[in-house]
Amino acid sequence: MLEVGTKAPDFTLPDQNGQMHSLSDYRGQRVILYFYPKDMTTGCTSQACSFAELYPQLREKGAVVLGVSKDSVESHKRFEEKHGLPFTLLSDPEMNVMNAYDVLAESTTKTGKITRRLVRSTYLIDANGIIEKAFGKVKPKDNAAQMLSELV
Asked: Which of 12, 57, 113, 138 has its CA 20 to 30 A from that of 148?
């Protein structure tokens, strides 16, 4: 993971509506940037719904939530609509942002093939674009409450 105190890499990705978002668009606000493996799976749904439930309190404390996975814009739209998600989901199919944020780990399949998989991770980025906190291997159900507790 990236070091706390370093500048968060800027990026531009499409959201669930096809609109482009850059991290720099959120200067002046704290950003909860969370990386998750796949829309509609049990863990990812639990994590997203927890963020949705706490979203009003997160916003009250001045934070925006951005979820990132390699799923398509269309998949994100279905995920948002099915679960009533009030925050932005960003599509990173080439995994460039995941790579920039160092949330990919190499693993070897049974056949010996080396693959890169996402490690569920969350960053808290301050209003100036600096990484305040970095959490790897987060628990889906607890992640939103954990982030709310970090917003002091």
From this structure: 12
Contact yes or no for 47/137 (Cβ under 8 A): no
Of 40, 105, 107, nearest in space to 67 by CA: 40
44 is catalytic: yes
Question: Helix-strand-coil percent breakdown of the chain, rounded to 5?
Answer: 30, 30, 40
How far apart are the C-alpha atoms of 26 and 31, rounded to whole Å?
7
Contact 92, 13 (CB under 8 A): yes
Residue with tokens 């814009």: 73
Question: Would you give the DSSP letter of residue 138?
Answer: -
User: How far apart (Å, rounded) are the C-alpha atoms in residues 12 and 4?
Assistant: 22
Dump pLDDT digits (tens) for 69-111: 999 999 999 999 999 999 999 999 999 999 999 999 988 888 9
Identified catalytic residue from 44, 48, 89, 138: 44
Task: Give Cα 75 distance to the centre of its chain.
Answer: 15
Among 17-21, 93-97, 116-120, 129-133, whose mean pLDDT is lowest? 116-120
Does the pLDDT of residue 152 top 90, yes or no?
no
